[in-house]
Amino acid sequence: MKRIGSLNREILRLALPNLITNITVPLLGMADLAMMGHLEDVAYLGAIALGSTIFSVLYSVFGFLRMGTTGLSAQAFGADNQEAIALVLKRSLLVSLALALGLIVLQYPIRFFSFYLLESTPQVEDLAASYFQIRIFAAPATLGLYALYGWFLGMQNAKIPMFIAVMVNVLNIGLNFLFVFGFNLSSDGVAWATLIAQYAGLFTGLLFLWTRYRRFVYSQPWRDILNSREVRRFMGINTDIFIRSVVLLLTLSFFTAMSAQLGETVLAVNTLLFQFFFLFSYFADGLAYAAESLVGKAYGSADKLLLRRTIKRIFQWSFAVMVLASSIYYFSTEVLLQVMTDNESLIESAKKFHYWIVLLPITSVAAFIWDGVYVGTTKTKPMRNAMLIASLVVFFPVFYLSRACFPEHALWFALNMFMLARSLLMWGFWNRQQVWAR
């Protein structure tokens, strides 16, 4: 039986590197925008904003590659099934390659549809189109890294994904400076930097795979890799996570769209305040990723007591993170806003929403952790259903029913109820299902 101290160390061993990995993502986006912001023509800044938005949305819905791979490989690791571990790796890499090639083949309709939705000036669209045409060829590397990250996490190793993520982003920023200011490639330089850094990351991941996990890199019959039953299971799990991700993306996009309808000031304020949610999500996701790995391992080993203790301990850690985040937001919201903007009128307007920000970690933390638990056990249908119900039955009705009473606060009320509903629904589904029925 695993001692509490040992379990705590395992949680931190996985959560802290995942936290660092998560934080590197927005830092790169800020660096890209900062470099374009120092060029004379603001069209370059608009092109990067438009192009990076397209790829952020595009790749966010493919997050299932990492999540599904983590759950399946963690279970195989817990069961000490060497063959299954190797098969999960190969299936995930094959699916990522197939999806990436599909994106490259369909790049023109994707670009046309994206620019139709995100309409801008002709100059910005021309620059963004050039950025898109370069960066789309990084798709095999980007999705391949998703598969490798998930597999490494399933193998209880968060340090390799952290190292790769830091290396990729440092290289990307360095190449940005070289291409933008050294070669005067402007927004195209940012795209080339991203493409090269992504393939460098993929090469590094494969190098780690060969040097640290060579025993899983061996030839297996294609009939085993493409086993119809296992492939259907793999795709079924990933389809559920895909649907869940799309619904979440649409819900959060609706939040932004409705903020814009309420005026420039509300949009600016809500955009600033939403950074508090993103900031909290980095910490909560660190624990959620740890849950995917450790819960998957316990589930794969068929150790019911360890599974319960792991879930309980991760929720205890999440409660501590929740209290810390809400306390910081309660006492320091104005200070944090001043870091993000020096516009006093925006800061004053944002203060009206202060209590929603304090409440958000409380209503949302369990949803992050339950996501990790469901991914670890690959019980993805209840997670998908909880997202659909929370969005369609809670978020949208709550928003439309409450905006007549308090229009400016309705979005924040609906968002908090949406996250709370997800938490409660997944808790209820967990208690009802037979966890050990495979």
Report the mean per-residue pLDDT as an integer: 90
Dominant shape: globular
* Helix-strand pattern: HHHHHHHHHHHHHHHHH
Quaternary structure:
single chain
Catalogue the unreliable spans.
none
Structural class: mainly alpha
Total strands: the figure is 0
Which percent bin holds the helix content?
Answer: over 70%
Total count of domains = 2
Main sheet record: none
In terms of DSSP E residues, the strand content is under 5%
Radius of gyration: 22 Å
Q: How far is the N terminus from the C terminus?
A: 23 Å
Separate helix tally: 17
Describe the protein's topology.
Blueprint: H1 4-37, H2 42-60, H3 64-78, H4 82-105, H5 107-117, H6 122-135, H7 139-154, H8 159-182, H9 186-212, H10 222-225, H11 228-261, H12 264-300, H13 304-340, H14 344-350, H15 354-377, H16 380-402, H17 410-432
Helix pairs in contact: 1-2, 1-8, 1-12, 2-6, 3-4, 3-7, 3-11, 3-12, 4-7, 6-9, 7-9, 8-9, 11-12, 11-16, 12-13, 12-14, 12-15, 13-15, 15-17, 16-17
Description:
By secondary structure, this protein is mostly helical. It folds into 2 domains: 14-226, no CATH class; 236-438, no CATH class. The protein is built from 17 helices and no strands. The protein has helices at 4-37, 42-60, 64-78, 82-105, 107-117, 122-135, 139-154, 159-182, 186-212, 222-225, 228-261, 264-300, 304-340, 344-350, 354-377, 380-402, 410-432. Helix 3 (64-78) packs parallel to helix 7 (139-154), helix 4 runs antiparallel to helix 7 (139-154) and helix 12 (264-300) packs across helix 14 (344-350). The protein is globular, with a radius of gyration of 22 Å. The two termini are 23 Å apart.
